[in-house]
Amino acid sequence: MERSLLKELNKSTLEAYVNRARDAFFKRMFWTMFFPLKYTTQLTWESLAGSSGSPVMADVIEYNASSPLKSRRIVSKANGDIPKIGIKRKMDEKDYNDYMTLKALANDTNRSAILDIVFNDVDFVYEGVLARTEFLCMQALSYGGLSLDANNNNGVITETDVDFGIPSGNKTAVGTVWSTAASATPITDIRTVVTSAEDNGHNVSYIVMDKSTLNYALATTEVKDTFAAFQRISTSRKNLVSLEDLNTMMEAMLLPRVMVVDSKVRFENAEHTLSNVAPWKTGYVSFIPDMKIGKVLHGPIAEESAESIAKKATLIKRDHVLISKWSDLEPFGEFTKGQANAFPVFNDVDSVYILKVNGTSWS
């Protein structure tokens, strides 16, 4: 391991570049709205259950009488180890020769191309870690669990299936799938889940779904007829219903606001074949009490405090991502790596409700 061969790149230029690029990357991700970052010194995660709900009332008592003793709610936990997330790219001899050729022909046009070569791999690894964080968080929020297999992960892992501990009673399915436009009842189904949550002492403030699920809901006869009645027009004159229309109507019916998650990431398998992956599990709708439903716990990374590595590699940490740049002379290669020790957790899984809308039984 040696210092980077790219002379335009050092710790200060790398840090300045990532600081400028950060906002653009984060705008394409949804996980930060629901799971803000929180640092932990421990490489373990815990999702809590039983830590919220409606308040317990004090009792009316006589003067000079002792206050009745109330029970302390038992807080249970789903837990595990925080995994490592990692991605790496190599600039080989041909790429490096292209870089040197551009430097030899330096002009205003080539200068931009040189910077693209220098920082392209930095973009790639930084956004790659953010994309995996997006996948983990959206799988957790949409399904209450996640599975890592050859179709969505290429690496050695210690845990392939994770259950965040959302109670089984909070996970239900519809009577008619929402894609059946004539007979599906999205508003009725939503009201059923909201009522169940309220009966359990939980408030629902947001309903979260992906774009395809929203489109199924908006196309149903129930939603169109309800919107026509809301507008006080004949059902024969009912218009196409938008998300804005739906939320205006939901507010009038004292139902939660609908939010749409529409993110895509790509997966590269062991054969380097790329495929698009939707982080949100299709056909599931989540009911949550607050926008900030949990957090992404991220812990220390060994290379951060390794003096021998810091002497040879250029390292910067931004958010939960550690970016490393170094070169090897034999075999030749300029390497860029992004890594994080990070995993999502829920503040209180008891307050999360999930409705399956593309099937009539939970799976």
Taken as a percent bin, the fraction of beta residues is 25-35%
Q: Give the CATH architecture of the largest domain.
A: Super Roll
Q: Count of DSSP helices?
A: 9
Shape: elongated
Report the helical percentage: 25-40%
Radius of gyration: 25 Å
Average pLDDT rating: 85
Overview of the molecule:
There is one protein chain. Helix 1 packs across helix 4 and helix 3 packs across helix 4. Helices cover 32% and strands 26% of the residues. The radius of gyration is 25 Å and the shape is elongated. It contains nine helices and 17 strands. About 2% of the residues have low confidence. The chain has two domains: 202 residues, Super Roll (putative capsid protein of prophage fold); 94 residues, no CATH class. With 363 residues, the protein is α+β, with helices and mostly antiparallel strands. The two termini are 48 Å apart. The strands form five sheets. Strands 1, 4, 13, 14, 15 and 16 form a six-stranded mixed beta sheet that branches. A five-stranded mixed beta sheet has the order 7-17-12-8-9, with helices on both faces. It has a two-stranded antiparallel sheet with strand order 2-3. A hairpin with a 2-residue loop joins strand 14 and strand 15.
Q: What tags apply to this protein structure?
A:
alpha+beta, six-stranded mixed β-sheet, putative capsid protein of prophage fold, 363 residues
Topology readout:
Layout: H1 11-27, H2 31-34, E1 37-39, E2 44-49, E3 76-81, E4 84-91, H3 93-104, H4 108-143, E5 145-147, E6 161-163, E7 171-173, H5 186-199, E8 206-210, H6 211-218, H7 221-231, H8 243-252, E9 257-261, E10 265-268, E11 274-277, E12 284-288, E13 294-298, H9 307-310, E14 314-318, E15 321-329, E16 332-346, E17 353-356
Parallel strand pairs: 1-13, 7-17, 8-9
Antiparallel strand pairs: 2-3, 4-16, 5-6, 8-12, 10-11, 12-17, 13-16, 14-15, 15-16
Helix pairs in contact: 1-4, 3-4
